[in-house]
Specification:
Layout lengths: L1 H10 L19 E4 L18 E4 L2 E5 L4 H12 L3 E6 L2 H7 L7 E5 L6 H8 L5 E4 L11 H20 L3 E5 L15 H8 L3 H15 L2 E7 L1 E3 L6 E6 L7 E3 H10 L9 E8 L7 H6 L5
Parallel strand pairs: 3-4, 3-6, 4-5, 6-7, 7-8, 8-12, 9-11
Antiparallel strand pairs: 1-2, 10-12
Helix pairs in contact: 2-8, 4-5, 5-7
Bound molecules: NADP nicotinamide-adenine-dinucleotide phosphate.
């Protein structure tokens, strides 16, 4: 499994640079309601009247929250003031990854191969958006990429419809449409399709999303790195990039920022990081991509 991950990363060209990563944290819209303080005079229990306030946060469901990108998405959402429902296969594992009992983080069991009804139960009510950061885990099951990266993502979109969630962010991959881009002989395209038709599975799911009517942003990153960000994000329209790499921190940032800017709506964006790229705001980056 480690070999497969290593090879996957090697097939994407790495562009390493030393520019700082933008830590801009845009404020999200929150409604502030005064919490009524209760005071029981004349009884044994006396509560001090206080001016506590309760913030109503926007709530996002993250599928694949224990993954390398998924956990970064969860952490960035929390840091930016969202409440998070983390969809995970193993809640005990999730508790070892997210320590500290954040009251705005909730874990719920969600296996995307178990169908849209179960996923709808997991998503529940009053969610504002779903971010999908799942990816098959290498195993002897050759159908796994198709079950997770195609059918699993489709089920998640169906679950969104059942739960009346109309915002969906997908972490996909560059080269999913490699055949149409003339990249049939690109080693990354060949390798990732030899492993269970992974890129074709992802492309099928993307096509379903785009026809579904849901307000989507499909984020297609280049090769993923766990290293801290280096270089600035380059964002291009679909079927443009066929090499390059990017830190998972930046991928998570793009997925979360997509929730903040309407310029990202109904768009497919491809991203890598490059040393020579100018630093641009996410609004500018998303805004420069034409809707198709
Ligand atoms: N590796 C690359 O260079 C590269 C490049 C471009 C795009 N991508 C894509 O980017 C996405 C994120 O990649 P990553 O490397 O950060 O992911 P990752 O670390 O491999 O994590 C995958 C996540 O998917 C979850 N998952 C697997 N099967 C599932 C199922 N049946 N139901 C629910 N969740 C399931 C895993 O859960 P568990 O934690 O329970 O296993 C894990 O949370 C993936 O779609 C990947 O294909 C990868």
């Amino acid at each position: 499994m480690a070999t497969a991950v290593f090879l996957t990363n090697c097939f994407f060209n790495h562009s390493l640079i030393n520019k700082p990563f933008s830590h801009r944290l845009p404020a999200i819209q929150t409604k502030i309601f005064p919490l009524k303080a209760s005071k029981m005079e004349g009884s044994e229990i006396t509560e001090e009247k206080n001016d506590e306030i309760l913030e109503e946060k926007k709530k996002v469901f993250v599928a694949g929250a224990t993954g390398n990108t998924g956990k970064r998405i969860v952490n960035q959402l929390l840091a930016k003031g969202f409440a998070v429902k983390a969809g995970v296969r193993d809640i005990d594992k999730a508790k070892t990854i997210f320590t500290g009992n954040n009251p705005h983080l909730q874990f719920v069991k969600a296996d995307v191969t178990e169908g849209s009804d179960k996923l709808a139960d997991a998503i529940g009510e009053n969610l504002d958006a779903v971010i999908c950061a799942t990816g098959f885990r290498p195993s002897w099951n050759l159908l796994s990429p198709w079950q997770v990266d195609n059918f699993g993502t489709v089920s998640l979109v169906e679950a969104c419809r059942k739960c009346k969630v109309n915002r969906f962010i997908l972490v996909s991959s560059i080269l999913v449409n490699g055949a149409a881009m003339g990249q049939l002989l690109n080693p990354a395209y060949i390798f990732l399709n030899v492993v269970g038709l992974t890129l074709i599975a992802k492309l099928q799911a993307e096509q379903y999303i785009r026809k579904s009517g849901i307000n989507y942003t499909i984020v297609r990153p280049g090769g993923l790195k766990n290293d801290p960000p280096s270089g600035n994000v380059v964002m291009e329209p679909e079927d443009t990039l066929y090499e390059g790499s990017i830190s998972r921190d930046q991928v998570a940032e793009v997925a979360v920022e997509a929730l903040l800017y309407p310029e990202s709506h109904y768009k497919v964006v491809e991203i890598v990081a490059r040393a020579d790229a100018p630093q641009r705001s996410f609004q500018e980056l998303f805004g420069a991509i034409k809707q198709r």
